[in-house]
Amino acid sequence: MSTLHLRVGFMPLVDCALVVLAKDEGFAETEGLNLELVREVSWSNLRDKLNVRLFDAAHVLAPMALASTLGIGGVRAPMAIPMALNLDGFAVTVSLRRFEELTRLAEGDLADPDVSARALAALVARRSAAGLPPLTFAAVFGYSSHTYLLCEWLGKAGLVLGEHIRFEVVPPPQTVEALASGRIDGFCASAPWNSAAVARGIGAMVLANVDIRRDWPDKVLVWRADDAERRAAAVAKLGRAILKASDWATDPANVPRFAHHLSAPDRLALPVDVLEPILRFEIRQGAGRPPRQIERFVRFDRAALRPEPAHADRILDGMAMAGQAVPDEEMRALARQVFRPDLFPVGAG
Asked: One of this protein's Pfam families, by short name (predicted)?
């Protein structure tokens, strides 16, 4: 059997795991693939390289794939999602100083998203009355579930992202330094960057996405739409390799080796002791609090990987909440077509 070379872009996040494991545990090779994994520095770089075919496929934010297909945000590049790569796994972290302020202002348990949102609204009002500049929160990309989580959380207390709180885009690996420097007061990002901020002693997690809702569509495997049709055999081979990686990743006995793969310098380049607890769903909270056990904090199981057209509606609802789009039925129909359950691999054992 001849070997097919595929160049796949990814961002250094725990949810790139299945692509990494497909290569590092040999599942891609078994399918006749030679995977070249390329670590990128920003989501826009990754999107643009996929668009001009410098990548065959990529680990991508699900909302970014829809925005590209719909031509929202200045780039129009039709994409196809033959499978997801995870669900959930992201959180909001703030600086220790802001966390202490929220703790003092909280009327109730700060672990309750409604309570933390109201405490944040009180802090925003106090700063405004004192003539202080607004707080700045970041997400990893404008078109992301992270942005929509921030909007939904802030909305619980009548706050509008970009109005009451400044909004910045900061690529995932830069979030910790941006928080440490004081450039931002908080951020929403996927694992491991919340845990990395806590480990560095500069941040505290306020809430995880699962505190507001579960099964958020997060990262997906994306091909250009025309390539997904033209290269169906390659799409299927990579999909089968990723399903095998999913089975391996969800075996608790593999966690130490799993963390070792992700810690490599050309993967996430973080210590195993930061990554392994995340894979055991033991999430560091910071501010002197013990780790929090969050059942299925990030999902890699097969059921999480099926590309669900209904996720397109959830994403468009997020875009509407963020003021990015006014979805009509035509837009929703086109967005649903980006998710391709017909291309989801079968028979991978």
From this structure: NMT1_2
Together in a domain, 83 and 224:
yes
Considering the entire predicted model, what is its pTM?
0.97
Cα–Cα distance measured from residue 6 to residue 101, given in angstroms and rounded to the nearest whole number: 49
Rounded to an integer, the average pLDDT of 84-111 is 98
Dihedral-angle region of residue 308 (phi above 0 means left; psi in -120 to 50 means alpha; beta otherwise):
beta
Collapsed DSSP state (helix, strand, coil) of residue 288? coil
User: Among candidates 192, 189, 178, 181, which has minimal Cα distance to 270?
Assistant: 192
Distances (CA, A) of 170 to 141, 189, 194, 207: 7, 9, 13, 19
Same domain for 190 and 116 = yes
Task: Give how many domains the chain has, as a whole number.
Answer: 2
Select from 170, 195, 211 the last residue of a domain.
211
Burial of 47 (0-12, 13-18, 19+ CB in 10 A): buried
Rounded alpha-carbon distances, angstroms, from residue 106 to 110, 111, 112, 117, 134:
6, 10, 10, 9, 19
Q: Answer whether residue 118 is part of any domain.
A: yes
Per the structure, the complete domain to which residue 16 belongs is given by 4-88+216-306+320-343
pLDDT of residue 74: 83
Write down the H helix ranges in the chain: 17-24, 27-30, 43-51, 62-70, 96-105, 113-129, 145-155, 175-181, 193-199, 225-230, 232-249, 255-263, 272-279, 302-305, 310-321, 329-338
Structure tokens at 65: 């794939």
Query: Angle at CA 189, nearest 5°, toward 107 and 251?
Result: 105
* Cα–Cα distance measured from residue 173 to residue 12, given in angstroms and rounded to the nearest whole number: 7
Listed residues 211, 230, 264: the one ending a domain: 211
